Amino acid sequence: MLWLRFLVRRVGFYLAAAWVAITLNFLLPRLMPGDPADAIIAQMSRTQQLTPDQVRSIQQLFGAPDEPLWRQYLSYLGQLTRGDLGVSTAYYPTPVSEVIGSGIWWTLTLVGTTTVLAFLIGTALGVVAGARPGSIFDSVASPLSTFLGSLPFFWVALLSVLFFSSTLGWFPLGGGWDNDIPIGLSAEFVGSAVEHAVLPAGTILLSSVGGWLFGMRNMMITTAAEDYVLLGTAKGLSPRRVMFAYAARNAILPSVAGFATAIGFVVSGSLLAEIVYTYPGVGYLFYQSVASMDYPLMQALFLVVALSVLAANFVADSVYGWLDPRARETA
Amino acid sequence: MRNGKVRAGVAVFAFFVLAALVGPFVTDAMGLSPTAIDAAASLQPPSAAHPLGTTMAGEDVLAQLVVGARTSLLVGLVAGTIATTLSVLAGVTGAYLGGKADALLTAFTNVFLVLPGLPLLIIIASYVQGRGGWLLVALIIGLTGWPWGARQKRAQTLTLRRRDFVMAAELAGESRWRIIVFDLIPNLAPLISTSLLGAVVASVFADAGLAFIGVGNINITSWGSMLYWSQQQQALLQGAWWWFVPPGACIALLGTAAGLINFGVDEISNPRLRAATRSVRRRVRKAAMAGE
């Protein structure tokens, strides 16, 4: 029952956060110097005749000069609820939602898999390092993970392309799959997609495993000194049992809580990694939209990324509230 | 400061500050220019004339690196200061005042904590399109980089506000602002200074990321703009590692220095992380022997 109440409160918080994201998205083009709506209309009418309907849609998304702000806000919200995010100027006349739909699966698969993998691998290694602080493994893995974690994502990506693709020729230079193979669920396509995903996934793993390792190690050491762990040892349980059933079980809680905030960092970092690997996901689309000043696509991508991060956060939060009863009372 | 990791981190940091301050004069004296274009010396590997090689346009990489250190650190310092000031305002005031003000500030902080920062930065920066130069970039980074620090400071202030000296000041009739400025903030100084350092380094990272995408200040020499141009002109495919390895390595070193300092401060504030090493090992060994 308590968990349910906790959930309801969290839903409220994330709805508020989503509202802030949407409102920011509404306000930014209107607060910025210049008139984005005019710029977009001018840019689009160079290639195609715009219908009055399209002009109105752009003005609702980016600012109509004569309308009061509150009315613009209402029509903006109305347009969003209809799922209308405007028309991409770079991929004209494809609607923005279609362009995003083509990229989001690549990113979800890549970032989703690597985030979960990084958490599992990092936490497991952290238990090992924290169980015996000062051991050979700990004194190598802990500083190494701090070092790897402080490397800039996109730079590691650049180096890995140089080394593994250019020099050794083990992996393709970029892209999401071999363009000669039609997209579909064929063994050939999946194999090619996996081959193209190895380097981006490896980079994200390399940069994010360390954080989990380090956090878990420190919590393991802190909990190992708690009375109830001592009690476990005093009861004559095997050290392994004490380590996992007593210490690690409690030490993992902050890591799960941290999982929520870490998602945002991983998403930000993998945007940059996608750009280096020209991986056909949301990050690369974002880059292209910025380079070609495709404001409708850029704005919509921000909204999609922000809302996905919020959703992932909500899931992580709920799991945490379920694992740790104390969180439910204070949240 | 007796902690070895903290010392090593501070030393690396000091080295970069020094390089940023006097480095450009040294390379000038060596006759190296970050902007002089020399078509005859395009993409040369490191040599005596160009210790770190040249770019596509024949500019000297070493000269760019030290001038870039100046820009990158300046952006980092300004943005980090803005972010830290905001985090103190939001975190300390909220935690001390409590009640509705705290609830509001905490909710505000948490919302900005879960919104992904880099995409937001990219959007704002691309609307601004380099207008306002590095200062505006620093301002944007600073304005989006405060929530994490605010959360940290709030937690620490919550433990401080119940201490005796705060109580004493309250009984003496001190105003709330006086207590925050003269009693709470000085006691938070160690936390504030490490978080300032973290914010500076995070801002250097953000600046480099923005420039790398091409929405930062790519026409001013910085570590990020070096990476941007090397990527644009396909240094990678031509194997010109001396162009993009040095700026990335500098950013990475700065990050490692911040990591070391954090590492060390953790050990100082939580002695178990340090003292546990030997005693736990002994205990584990004893337990293992007892088990046999």
Automatic annotation (TrEMBL), chain A:
Segments traversing the membrane = 12-28, 104-131, 152-173, 193-214, 251-277, 297-316
Boundaries of every ABC transmembrane type-1 domain copy: 104-316
Q: Mind telling me which CDD domains this protein's record contains?
A: TM_PBP2 (cd06261)
Signal peptide residues are none
This protein's UniProt keywords: Membrane, Transmembrane, Transmembrane helix, Transport
Topology term for the membrane = Multi-pass membrane protein
Can you say where in the cell this protein is located?
Cell membrane; Membrane
InterPro entries linked to this entry? MetI-like, MetI-like_sf
Q: Which family does it belong to?
A: Belongs to the binding-protein-dependent transport system permease family.
Task: State the protein's name.
Answer: Peptide/nickel transport system permease protein
- Origin species, per record, is Nonomuraea africana
From TrEMBL, chain B:
Q: Which family does it belong to?
A: Belongs to the binding-protein-dependent transport system permease family.
The root-end lineage is: Bacteria, Bacillati, Actinomycetota, Actinomycetes, Streptosporangiales
Query: Which CDD domains does this entry report, sorted A to Z?
Result: TM_PBP2
UniProt KW keywords = Cell membrane, Membrane, Transmembrane, Transmembrane helix, Transport
Its placement in the membrane is given as: Multi-pass membrane protein
Primary localization class, coarse: membrane
Q: From the UniProt annotation, give the residues forming the signal peptide.
A: none
A Pfam cross-reference name? BPD_transp_1
Q: Which SUPFAM superfamilies match?
A: MetI-like
Q: Where in the cell does this protein reside?
A: Cell membrane
Q: What residue intervals traverse the membrane?
A: 73-97, 104-127, 133-150, 240-265
Designated name of the protein = Peptide/nickel transport system permease protein
InterPro entries given in the database record: BP-dependent_transpt_permease, MetI-like, MetI-like_sf
Q: Where is the ABC transmembrane type-1 domain?
A: 69-262
From what superkingdom does this record's organism come? Bacteria
